[in-house]
Amino acid sequence: METTKAIEIPGYGSVMLFGAVRGLASEVERQMDAIKEFGPDVIALAVSKQELDGLMSSLDGVDEDHMTNYDEIYSRHLTRYGDVGMPPPDLIAVCRYAVENDVPIRSVDLSELSMYRASVKFIKPIETVRYGMLMRNLIGKRFKAGTAAEFALEWDGQVRRIKGFRKLEEFREDQMARRIHWLVSNYDRVFAALEVQRLEGVVQGLERLTRASRS
Strand 14-20 vs strand 4-8: parallel, antiparallel, or unpaired? Predict the structure, then answer.
């Protein structure tokens, strides 16, 4: 399964998109090898501005991370594939690399307020009820995935069966693609650290924006 994608945007710069299984400790080495090999001028992190602030605080020993019920159920299944950490060790490693190497790091996901507004726009009340039922069903579900990345995509597929949540994730992917595209207009080499579930959607969004910029 492809979890990295390099895109050249003519007249701008290059982007290396990396899809990680967020929270899985074994992803740290793979991700850091990719960052060091690419040598970015800026790092785009698929978290909210508030989450990024919390991650940076955690480097100083201040742990502001709180797991939702969704996170707990997901993490419980993810332990089948290795050790899982909170805050996600792959994100902590990226932030530490940025600080130690004086590389700017930028949030490209929706802010908490924007996420709330988007949720209200796309998700109907009945779909929130269906989501709660889905989470209860997923607690004891046996997933077919043989790898962590396959599990993450299978899990995401379950959630995206609910139309409102699918629309929300598509909106997030579009917004992340637009923000990464903007970064490429200001930096030559952009490394984007994404969840593997969002990788393909962001790639497609960047390719659309690249085609549009050529026309």
Answer: antiparallel
